[in-house]
Automatic annotation (TrEMBL):
Signal peptide: none annotated. This is Transport permease protein. Keywords: Cell membrane, Membrane, Transmembrane, Transmembrane helix, Transport. One of its GO terms (molecular function) is ABC-type transporter activity. Belongs to the ABC-2 integral membrane protein family.
Length: 255
């Protein structure tokens, strides 16, 4: 046990490498996580953007934070699917027969989501720059944006862990991604919440994605962030802690 704890980070690195190799061999994952958000950004900017009153001359500046969050949300179904597959094939049972940390396999999948989403986000931002995106943010603001996106990724990844190791079928494992996909759509990611009907506006202004989008948008535009950053952090940290707690409980019972 002492040896297992001592080598936790090396075990986690091995699991990360294993899971990353699965990602690079999965073309549908690459298309869903990177190509689809870029296609959506092109659609909104060049087809729909002219009809949307966002209060800015450059709609891609307004749109980009929401596209980044959608890219992360798109990846969550793959986290739960890969975990479900490992459980069903008895991979975790094999790992537990080896002298490795029990939670290293879970962290391998979670960190894979973090790394793969970081690569996707960089690609999306590069495409946005070609489309005319501009930012007056300094290095600290960009680091803050990176931190928020990483925290959002970890939060969703641990939610996906719960689904992946507790589901009875593939559909049950991946269904967790569906409601998460809708959150950026019913938020301030694409249009100001002021343009929405009262009931939808109330929901949009009191769900996690809107303060995250507003905080990222403020950082990228060099504007004061205000209370949005604290609300965003409270949502992410609160959900992350709850999801991690339940994920570990389910993991111990199931595996």
């Amino acid at each position: 046990m002492e040896s297992t704890k001592k080598h936790f980070f090396s075990d986690m690195g091995v699991m990360l490498g294993r899971s990353m190799r699965h990602i690079t061999r999965s073309m549908d994952t690459i298309i869903t996580v990177t190509i689809m958000p870029i296609a959506l950004m092109l659609l909104f900017v060049y087809v729909i953007g002219g009809a949307i009153q966002s209060g800015t001359d450059n709609y891609v500046n307004y749109l980009l934070p929401g596209i980044l969050l959608m890219a992360i949300a798109n990846s969550i179904g793959y986290v739960s699917f890969r975990l479900f597959t490992d459980v069903q094939r008895g991979i975790f049972d094999r790992f537990h027969s080896m002298p490795i940390a029990r939670s290293a396999a879970l962290w391998g999948h979670v960190l894979t989501s973090l790394v793969s989403n970081a690569i996707s986000i960089v690609v999306i931002i590069l495409v946005a720059l070609i489309m005319g995106f501009s930012s007056s943010a300094g290095i600290l603001s960009w680091l803050a944006v990176a931190g928020i996106l990483a925290l959002f990724t970890l939060t969703l990844a641990w939610i996906a862990v719960i689904a992946g190791i507790s589901a009875k079928s593939v559909d049950g494992a991946t269904v967790v991604a569906y409601p998460i996909h809708f959150l950026p759509l019913i938020s301030s990611a694409f249009v100001p919440t002021e343009t929405m009907p009262s009931g939808i506006r109330t929901f949009a202004e009191n769900q996690p994605v809107t303060p995250i989008v507003e905080a990222i948008r403020a950082f990228l535009s060099g504007q004061p962030v205000g209370s949005d950053i604290w609300v965003a952090l409270a949502w992410c940290v609160g959900i992350l802690l709850v999801a991690y707690f339940f994920a570990m409980r389910v993991y111990k019972k199931r595996v």
